[in-house]
């Protein structure tokens, strides 16, 4: 008797866990080049029969996260006797929805994507008589762009025994570029860095510099799309004689 009760309880738990509506996006991330016209796919299944009078609300939103998640509704499609689509004013002219509720299709179409579209997108399907299940799905859009030509500069004083940094940065690039520095001699052959030198995040840190630190330095900014370079000539000089010391030397002479 107890075995029958346990089996019945297990069956009830399984049946109660069956989702009435399920919203899915095939991939967790999509990558496209800047300027492309793209489609973010979304599909759903439901146990509710859908006809021309069934109310179905499909919403696409963008999600950004700073200190809290900020949601912006991009477009909302209302299915029913008079189907309508509302588009956010910031997306007018470059957003549309490709929807077929009888086939469970709820795609979002974006044209001329930009780096500002690097964010998460959420697809939500709501049917008032079908509230159980998984109503949302989220994907991440990565807009690919080659690194811009990096800027090279020296931070610090290029004098003997000083510590300085060579800075390299691209103002844009998606995914964010990685940086690497190399040094070359007057014959354009690679020269190994001093063992104490560190190269991290576009910053080449040079310690206790001398005349031997002088040279031609090249920074490469690179991501999966392309690479760009900048260069800088470092000339390490002796420290300047202070004005007071110079005055004293004049007297001694």
Which features would summarize this protein structure in a list?
mainly beta, 6-stranded mixed beta sheet, 10% helix, rod-shaped, disordered N terminus
How many strands, which pairing sense, and closed or not: the largest β-sheet? Answer: 6 strands, mixed
How big a fraction of the residues is strand? over 45%
Strand tally, please?
A: 20
The average pLDDT is 87
Principal-axis shape equals rod-shaped
Low-confidence spans: 1-19, 247-251
Would you list the SSEs in sequence order as H and E? HEEEEEEEEEEEEEEEEEEEEH
The number of helical runs is 2
Tell me the structural class. Answer: mainly beta
Range of helix content? under 10%
Termini separation (Å)?
116 Å
Radius of gyration, in Å, reads 31 Å
The oligomeric state is single chain
Strand order of the largest sheet: 2-12-10-5-6-7
Ordered list of secondary-structure elements with their pairings:
Layout: H1 2-16, E1 21-24, E2 29-33, E3 38-40, E4 43-46, E5 56-65, E6 69-79, E7 84-87, E8 95-100, E9 105-110, E10 119-126, E11 133-134, E12 136-144, E13 151-155, E14 164-169, E15 178-184, E16 190-191, E17 198-200, E18 203-206, E19 215-222, E20 227-234, H2 243-252
Parallel strand pairs: 1-11, 2-12
Antiparallel strand pairs: 1-4, 3-9, 5-6, 5-10, 6-7, 8-9, 10-12, 13-14, 14-18, 15-16, 15-19, 17-18, 19-20
């Amino acid at each position: 008797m107890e075995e029958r009760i346990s089996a019945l309880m297990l069956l009830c738990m399984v049946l109660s866990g069956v989702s009435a509506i399920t919203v899915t996006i095939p991939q967790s991330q999509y990558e496209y080049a800047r300027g492309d016209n793209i489609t973010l796919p979304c599909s759903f299944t439901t146990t509710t029969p859908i006809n021309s009078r069934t109310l179905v609300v499909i919403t696409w939103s963008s999600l950004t996260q700073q200190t809290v998640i900020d949601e912006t509704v991009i477009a909302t499609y209302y299915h029913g006797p008079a189907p309508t689509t509302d588009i956010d004013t910031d997306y007018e002219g470059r957003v549309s929805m490709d929807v077929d509720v009888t086939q469970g299709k709820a795609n979002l179409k974006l044209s001329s994507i930009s780096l500002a579209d690097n964010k998460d997108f959420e697809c939500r399907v709501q049917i008032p008589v079908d509230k159980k299940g998984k109503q949302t799905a989220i994907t991440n859009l990565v807009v690919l762009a080659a690194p811009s030509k990096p800027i090279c500069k020296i931070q610090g004083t290029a004098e003997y025994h000083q510590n300085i940094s060579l800075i390299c940065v691209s103002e844009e690039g998606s995914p964010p570029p990685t940086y690497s520095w190399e040094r070359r001699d007057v014959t354009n052959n690679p020269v190994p860095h001093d063992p104490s030198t560190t190269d991290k995040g576009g910053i080449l840190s040079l310690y206790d510099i001398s005349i031997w630190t002088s040279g031609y330095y090249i920074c490469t900014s690179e991501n999966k799309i392309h690479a760009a370079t900048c260069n800088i000539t470092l000339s390490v000089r002796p420290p300047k004689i202070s004005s007071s010391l110079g005055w004293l030397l004049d007297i001694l002479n």
